[in-house]
Specification:
Layout: H1 20-34, E1 46-51, H2 57-68, E2 72-75, H3 89-97, E3 102-106, H4 110-119, E4 124-126, H5 134-148, E5 155-159, H6 164-176, E6 179-183, H7 192-201, E7 207-210, H8 213-216, E8 222-225, H9 237-243, H10 251-257, E9 262-265, H11 277-280, H12 287-306
Parallel strand pairs: 1-2, 1-3, 3-4, 5-6, 5-8, 6-7, 8-9
Helix pairs in contact: 1-5, 1-12, 2-12, 3-4, 5-6, 5-12, 6-7
The structure holds phosphoric acid mono(formamide)ester.
The site of phosphoric acid mono(formamide)ester has 9 residues, from helix 2.
Length: 307
């Protein structure tokens, strides 16, 4: 039976906070939790949830994970707390340090998350920022591992905007030695700093950028997409829809992979835009297994960070 082990990091602000061996260990522990082979508890801890954006999967999976570990969650809503009034992060974080054992934070700027971590002297977890979505990537790679048994020779093609979800896939893929391809329109590539860092971690040319999705998917084992307009970008959605014409994951794109790939989407989806209804409900989709794996991977993450 796998038991939680202490990571070198106290926080999970970025996919790069964990080492390759730590990710592999966490995925095994998550699988143990999923298969009910571990009933490990961290009693009487409290996870504070600060969510500045809407969430279903991340919020509920953190709540259920803490419950399964024998611990509790408190929601710190910006509208009913003093966060919405503009209390400085350094004050909020220091006070919450006296009450809570960990924080999971969904906010806009990565620098705000880093500021929380500076003043909150216990684990802080990135529950999505504009830069990264590292908890999502853990669930994604557990889903891939379940499907293929490991990561050797796996090609993951992400079709969409080169932002937070893509960035965490790029980093986790680089750590695990997975070839990650990004297919996006010109002007929507991941930031140069993200590409540079991924190439430093894995110099074996494992990250490739494409502007034609039909070429990017050739031979891929995993096709992955996300909404074209992230939360906070709603006003740009009609422009983005135009930019992303031709980037819909549909049956034709699956066929072009010529490898019977699995299809992932972090959800929520706009059916008919970045992915068709038929693909979400089709035989290649592992989207709801992927969503379930948010729970098991976050339970494993919390067990390691809190024990
Ligand atoms: N994938 C994801 O983060 O979903 P939520 O926005 O519902 O948490």
């Amino acid at each position: 039976m796998y038991k939680p082990k202490k990571f070198d990091t106290d926080n999970f602000l970025s996919s790069l906070d964990l080492k390759k061996e730590e990710i592999l260990y966490l995925l095994e522990l998550a699988k143990n939790f999923k298969d009910k082979q571990s009933s490990f508890k961290v009693k009487d801890k409290v996870l504070g949830l600060i969510f500045d954006k809407a969430s279903t999967r991340t919020r509920v999976s953190f709540q259920v994970a803490m419950s399964r570990l024998g611990s509790n969650v408190i929601e710190i809503n910006r509208n009913t707390s003093q966060i919405g009034r503009g209390e400085p992060i350094k004050d909020t974080a220091r006070v919450l340090s006296r009450y809570c054992d960990a924080l999971a934070i969904r906010t806009f700027k990565q620098v705000d998350l880093v500021e929380y971590a500076k003043w909150f002297k216990k684990p802080v977890i990135n529950a999505l920022t504009d830069l990264e979505h590292p908890c999502q990537a853990l669930a994604d790679f557990l889903t891939i591992k379940e499907e293929f048994g490991g990561f050797k020779n796996i090609i993951l093609t992400f079709i969409g905007d080169g932002n937070n979800v893509a960035n965490s896939l790029i980093f986790t893929g680089a750590l695990l030695g997975v070839e990650v391809r990004i297919a996006c329109p010109k002007g929507f590539e991941p930031k140069t700093s993200i590409i540079k860092r991924a190439n430093e971690i894995n110099p074996n040319n494992s990250l490739k950028i494409f502007h034609d999705p039909s070429i990017a998917v050739k031979g891929a084992n995993v096709l992955y997409t996300d909404v074209w307009s992230s939360m906070g970008e709603e006003s740009e959605s009609s422009i983005k829809d135009k930019n992303f014409e031709g980037f819909t994951v549909n049956q034709d794109l699956i066929n072009r992979a010529n490898n019977d790939p699995i299809v992932l989407h972090c959800l929520p989806a706009y059916r008919g835009k970045e992915i068709t209804d038929q693909v979400i409900e089709g035989k290649n989709s592992r989207i709801f297994n992927q969503a379930e794996n948010r729970l098991h991977t976050q339970q494993a993450l919390l067990a390691c960070l809190l024990s």
